[in-house]
């Protein structure tokens, strides 16, 4: 749909002549500067419409950047940190209005689906907390946890995927110095269980340490699916570290718990990536997002979680 609007004569929203009143551009992180040129009124006629942050023609915060950990576009501070920049879910109300004005189509547009319409089952952008998710117990008392992050993280993103400044969900596991582990530090299962520093103790080689992980899980509410049970779960993921993973599970009253997919086994992933998982969730189901970490460091950041009826948002 984005490309079709180009064919119909529309530029990117961030090319508008009044762009600088609404967003800031980090030009040092722009990969292709022409995508962010301001076009004057002789080229772009705004037709008196307001700046549309959620236009299908607006770039996202991290689009077209050199270093994807840092946003390229951020909203002016007065617009707050919860604003969404761009989307590919469907035409915005202002997109529809501009098409009508440009092509003189004064017809009823109530039949045109905006965004997801009635397909949405569950959604959270973590702007105001964890929404309807509930937090389970970690496998260890000092283990990792899921938290809503309101600022940049050392090994994670600078901000959420919505606008580069917004909150996101974050879980982390700190580095364990393998060289300092001794026989007193390791239980029969291979997990560190003391802080002994006896210089006479034998050091345990990394290969001798068990790969028993620590985990922490968040649970969605029990969700009602569409007529045929077909659904799609989608989220944005930013991952760092060689030994951290995200496991996605589904279960329900008539659905045995099953792992849908594991994300991980990368040394470093310095950008937000959108993922989608098709599934049959039956009549009712809940989702579990489980952060898994071993002895090495790692973090997982998650944002823009959707569950929708039918086909996936982007892949289909």
Question: What characteristics describe this protein?
Answer:
Jelly Rolls, 5% helix, mainly beta, 28% strand, 2 helices, 2 domains, 316 residues, Collagenase (Catalytic Domain), 6-stranded antiparallel sheet
Biggest β-sheet: count, sense, barrel? 6 strands, antiparallel
Measured by DSSP, the beta-strand proportion falls in 25-35%
Radius of gyration, in Å, reads 23 Å
Q: Overall mean pLDDT score?
A: 81
Residue runs with pLDDT of under 50 for 5 or more positions:
177-210
Shape: globular
Number of helical regions? 2
- N/C terminus separation: 13 Å
Pairing-aware structural class of the strands and helices? mainly beta
Spell out the helices and strands N to C: HEEHEEEEEEEEEEEE
Class of the largest domain in CATH?
A: Mainly Beta
Write the CATH architecture name of the largest domain.
Sandwich
How many structural domains in the coordinates? 2
CATH topology of the largest domain: Jelly Rolls
Work out the helicity level.
under 10%
Number of strands: 14
Overall description:
This protein has 316 residues and is mainly beta. The chain has 2 domains: 1-103, Collagenase (Catalytic Domain), CATH 3.40.390.10; 118-174 and 212-309, Jelly Rolls (Sandwich). Helices cover 5% and strands 28% of the residues. The protein has 2 helices and 14 strands, in the order H-E-E-H-E-E-E-E-E-E-E-E-E-E-E-E. It has helices at 2-7, 93-103; strands at 23-25, 73-75, 120-124, 134-135, 147-149, 168-173, 214-219, 223-224, 230-240, 244-252, 255-264, 273-280, 284-293, 298-309. The strands form 3 sheets. Strands 3, 5, 6, 9, 12 and 14 form a 6-stranded antiparallel β-sheet that branches. The longest helix has 11 residues, at 93-103. It is globular and about 65 Å long. The two termini are 13 Å apart. The model is unreliable at 177-210 (pLDDT under 50).
């Amino acid at each position: 749909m984005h490309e079709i609007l180009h064919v119909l004569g529309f530029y990117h929203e961030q090319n508008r002549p009044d762009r600088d009143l609404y967003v800031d551009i980090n030009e040092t992180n722009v990969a292709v500067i022409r995508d962010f040129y301001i076009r004057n009124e002789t080229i772009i006629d705004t037709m008196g419409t307001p700046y549309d942050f959620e236009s299908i023609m607006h770039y996202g915060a991290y689009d077209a950047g050199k270093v994807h950990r840092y946003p390229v576009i951020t909203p002016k501070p007065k617009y707050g940190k919860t604003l969404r920049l761009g989307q590919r879910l469907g035409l915005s109300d202002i997109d529809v209005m501009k098409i009508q004005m440009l092509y003189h189509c004064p017809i009823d547009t109530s039949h045109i689906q905006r965004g997801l319409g009635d397909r949405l089952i569950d959604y959270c952008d973590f702007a105001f907390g964890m929404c309807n998710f509930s937090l389970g117990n970690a496998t260890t008392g000092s283990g990792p946890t899921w938290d809503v992050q309101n600022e940049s993280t050392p090994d994670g993103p600078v901000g959420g995927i919505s606008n580069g400044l917004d909150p996101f969900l974050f879980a982390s596991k700190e580095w364990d110095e393998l060289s300092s582990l001794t026989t007193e530090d390791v239980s029969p299962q291979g997990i560190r269980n003391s802080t002994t520093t006896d210089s006479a103790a034998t050091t345990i080689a990394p290969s001798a340490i068990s790969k028993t992980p620590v985990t922490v899980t968040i649970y969605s509410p029990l969700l009602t699916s569409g007529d045929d049970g077909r659904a799609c779960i989608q989220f944005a993921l930013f991952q760092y570290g060689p030994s951290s993973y995200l496991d996605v599970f589904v279960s329900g009253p008539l659905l045995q718990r099953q792992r849908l997919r594991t994300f991980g086994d990368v040394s470093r992933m310095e950008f937000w990536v959108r993922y989608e998982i098709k599934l049959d969730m039956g009549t009712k189901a809940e989702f579990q997002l489980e952060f898994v970490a071993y002895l090495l460091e790692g973090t997982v950041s998650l944002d823009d979680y959707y569950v929708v009826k039918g086909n996936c948002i982007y892949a289909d």
